[in-house]
Amino acid sequence: MKIDSSLSAIVTGGASGLGLATVQALRTAGAKVAIFDLNEEAGLKAAEETGSVFCQVDVLSDESVDAAFAKAREVNGQERVLVTCAGGGNAIPTARRDKKTGEINFFPSDKFEFVLKLNTVGTFRCITRAAAGMMSLEPLEGDRGVIINTASAAATEGQMGQAAYSAAKAAINGMTLTIARDLSREAIRVNTIQPGIFDTPAMARATPQMKEALGAMVPHPPRLGVSEEYASMALEVVRNGYINGTTIRLDGGIRMQPR
């Protein structure tokens, strides 16, 4: 699918990191973009800097998501591209013993459930709305639309404490082919990008030494990924009409260690 001024796109989590880089790349290519993000301050700033429309949205809420899609479509028209970057995680062992007191604690179920709702259900909530909207369009170069989801290396090599995040991202991988099959008759392609360790705002607390050590774990190139590389892959998935129903690893060949 050609990316130009006739194309409307939505990027969730578009106010920072991988999402913002994707917004910038789409705008550079000429597309109209709506930024979906919970952070109003960052979202408004990103929208102003990129010439996009900002829609404050909580992906945990049907009403919030529906309102955001309605606003984006009112301004930019029906989207043909959805890139879902909204998400997050926590780091809690399944069960652990306090080294000092010997007290045993376990992973609170509500915190596990929240991560699944934020990543998996939040992603699916946006997919369903986008797919229904795309079905109202006529095919363009064979496609009515393209949906791109974001997983993580944790989906396949989750580290200690990542049980919830691994489960949530593995579910995104797992539903990719199924949703692609569901939407194949409607000429809507569905794919997932599975990034490794990227230098995003989530790494803000890491020291330069920590980042260097993490980068050295990557076989080649031995560095952290940069958001622009994710954005480049996302745009290639949009443009390449034969990429469908798959998860693409974008990680320099890394396979995560237990910790």
Describe what you observe in this structure.
The chain has a single domain (8-250), classed as NAD(P)-binding Rossmann-like Domain (Rossmann fold, 3-Layer(aba) Sandwich). The protein is 43% helix and 17% strand. The protein is built from 8 helices and 9 strands. The protein has helices at residues 17-28, 40-50, 62-76, 109-134, 154-157, 163-183, 208-216, 227-239; strands spanning 8-12, 32-37, 53-56, 81-84, 95-97, 104-106, 145-150, 188-195, 247-250. The protein has a 7-stranded parallel sheet, sandwiched between helices. It has a two-stranded antiparallel ribbon with strand order 5-6. Strand 1 (8-12), helix 1 and strand 2 (32-37) form a beta-alpha-beta unit. Helix 1 (17-28) crosses helix 8 and helix 3 (62-76) runs parallel beside helix 4 (109-134). The longest helix is centred in the middle third of the chain and has 26 residues, at 109-134. It is globular and about 65 Å long. The mean pLDDT is 95.
Keywords, separated by commas or semicolons:
globular; two-stranded antiparallel sheet; SDR_fam; SDR family NAD(P)-dependent oxidoreductase; alpha/beta; Sc_DH/Rdtase_CS; 259 residues; Rossmann fold; oxidoreductase activity; oxidoreductase
